[in-house]
Amino acid sequence: MDSNTRQIKKIFEKAYAENTDALFRFALYRVSDREIAIDIVEDAYVRFWQTLEKEEVKEPRAFLFKLTRNLIIDWYRKRKSVPIQDFSEGGAEGERAEIFMDMFEGNIPGADVDLEARLLVEKIRELEPIYREAVYLRYVEELSPKEISAITGEPTNLISVRINRGLKLLKAALHI
Amino acid sequence: MKELKILKKSKLTESEKKELFSRVKKSVETLSGGDVKDLNYPIPSPFYRFTFMSHSTYMKAGVLALLILSLSGATAYASLGSLPGDMLYGVKVNVVEKVSKIAARSPESRARQESTQIERRVDEFEKLAEKGELTEAKTQVIEKHIEERLKDFDRNVTTIKERKGKNIEKIREEEDLEERLEKHAERILKIREEDESSGEEALESVIRRTKFGKEGGRGEQKNAPMFEIRLND
């Protein structure tokens, strides 16, 4: 193992130890299926390794979230080819797929969250979808607006506005 | 917003994580022919979870406090009542008190912490005097700690004054400290009356310095310590 591979291995192991749960949650709260979430995280790590072999990754955490997010989008796109009756009730096929892309839109498997979390998710669902991801990444995963901007590809200012407005709306919904 | 943190409860189990790691390793090897034979399942650091906390200072204090409580909880607790010369006195002033200072972020709260610790040292002085155990070495230890805390206290008071405007003559923290020290001076006088042998010179010195502080002399001699606790050789 040469020094470059050793360095890649070190970065990879550290990133795996520090981010696996967060990436899994991020995927789970979108795809609402534990096994699919694990598959997505697996793909994200494989791509992360492949990227590390080619170039330096300055912000591994943000980069891994970005990879996971893109893989979730890919997964939804593939689902579009599935017959409409495979989706839950209502909505056109494409429309349904887009709705499912929002965080917390689907049901979270019972074993993954307790009642308290479930009630909180209900309140988060009251937020417009554009606020959910920003608030989630900022206050649950504690990413900075700059990191979130790197993940979503949107300007940092816009992310900050979403975080602030989303938080205000969520506090109002929770009466705090 | 701490309410949202409950969503962090969703996690993979340790065995799921290990299995996922093996799958990733295998895929890397198959897909890109990567050299992964020395790639090992990482054991997360127990301190990692704190590195992304936004209130890192509070968290540091929390982690340190937790360490103290978990690793030497009884020691830390027992150290609270220790006096100079006791085995646990070092734990009290160098560990327990320093941990509590980490959480103080504003100059006001830092000044309050410093003044509390100064008062605690004077209290220790009183206790030793009461027990007739006041020696030169112990007095020097207390004096050293008081001087260090006073320097920090003055620094924080200066910062508060700069922020609030230079025209403020006295701030609450200064008044609080002086008021409390005055009570100590009265108590030290009482001890002296009861026990003439208890480091008389040192007691006199404390009283003198405390009064000096109260009369506003410290404002003119900023760098002068409030106390000069000395015993004759």
Explained architecture:
The complex is a heterodimer of chains A (176) and B (233). Chain A is mainly alpha-helical and 176 residues long. Chain A has a domain at 1-84: Rna Polymerase Sigma Factor, Chain: A (Orthogonal Bundle). Chain A has helices spanning 3-31, 34-54, 60-79, 93-100, 115-124, 129-139, 145-152, 156-174. In chain A, helix 2 (34-54) crosses helix 3 (60-79). Mean pLDDT of chain A is 83; it is low at 83-94. The N and C termini of chain B lie far apart (59 Å). Chain B is built from 8 helices and no strands. In chain B, helix 2 packs antiparallel against helix 3, helix 4 (107-131) runs parallel beside helix 6 and helix 6 runs antiparallel to helix 7. By secondary structure, chain B is mostly helical. Chain B is elongated, with a radius of gyration of 26 Å. Chains A and B meet through helix 1, helix 2, helix 5, helix 6 and helix 8 of A and helix 1 of B.
Low-confidence blocks of residues of chain B: 46-55, 210-233
Overall helicity of chain B: 55-70%
In N-to-C order, the SSE pattern of chain A is HHHHHHHH
Which geometry of chain A do the CA atoms define? globular
Provide the β-strand percentage band of chain A: under 5%
Remind me, CATH topology of the domain at 1-84 in chain A?
Answer: Rna Polymerase Sigma Factor, Chain: A
- Assembly state of the chains shown: heterodimer
Strand segment tally of chain B: 0
Q: What is the CATH architecture term of the domain at 1-84 in chain A?
A: Orthogonal Bundle
Key descriptive features of the protein:
A: 176 residues; Rna Polymerase Sigma Factor, Chain: A; B: mainly alpha; 66% helix
Structure at a glance:
The complex is a heterodimer of chains A (176) and B (233). Helices cover 72% and strands 0% of the residues of chain A. Chain A is an all-alpha fold and 176 residues long.
SSE diagram, text form:
The complex is a heterodimer of chains A (176) and B (233).
Chain A: H1 3-31, H2 34-54, H3 60-79, H4 93-100, H5 115-124, H6 129-139, H7 145-152, H8 156-174
Helix pairs in contact in A: 1-2, 1-3, 2-3, 3-7, 6-8, 7-8
Chain B: H1 14-32, H2 56-79, H3 89-102, H4 107-131, H5 136-164, H6 172-194, H7 200-214, H8 217-220
